[in-house]
Amino acid sequence: PDAPEGHAAHSAVKLHGMSREALLRSVFFLKSPTGGKISFQLSVQGCNGNPDVAMRLGRWFYVQMVDHGMSREEGARQRDAWYATFRAAESKVQPPKSSPAAADAPKPPLKREHSDDLGAAPRSPKHSAKKAAARQACTNDHVGGLTEAQEEEVLRLLGEAPEERPKLHWIRSIRSCRFDEPASCTVSYDRAQAITRRVAERIAFLCHARYLAGERRKKVAEFRQAAYSIAQAVLAGAGEG
User: Fold this and answer.
1) Contact between 189 and 197 (Cβ < 8 Å)
2) pTM to 2 decimals?
3) 8 A C-beta contact, residue 61 and residue 73
4) How far is CA 141 from CA 18, 47, 204, 239, in A?
């Protein structure tokens, strides 16, 4: 699919991002019912790594939304369906089968560490307790000492989350969340910075909005650090009181 020749979509849809495939995307902007501006984007990575396909699909979606009244939500559903189609087509490309000689070759035995005749050695109670404590720390919503009231104050000071929000990947091992488009950005919710998961999520959404507005990575990083400082100031103020 594509927009008809001469349609406004050909000038409205742009290719944004960095040179790496994972960060490239086709984007266009529309007016929201409230008078603001919303964007719609397709990642090149989701379009089988083909920028031309991402641009043609982007122009097609522009036509559907501007000329035929497709909602942004319906556009997102259809975009996901296109991504799934590309993934399915790619999965049909099977690797070459190994030769009979290679298939019949004996395979090395699996290496098993810390095992005895009955299998793997059981974990010690001390090790299990440490693992449970680490898991609880990773899932704790109020790391850093913030109370719920202080957390609400931090969220108020940071400002409302934008309408367009990226998909966040939560990484418990390093206590952070991350988004990858239009550029990668990681927000910590631990490291003694008084950042809860809700605060980290809000900061990530606001950083994403700044990227969409065209800010450079350095400026976004400065904003992220300033947001951390807001949470620390709220906690420090409560301690002084």
Assistant:
1) yes
2) 0.44
3) no
4) 34, 36, 16, 20
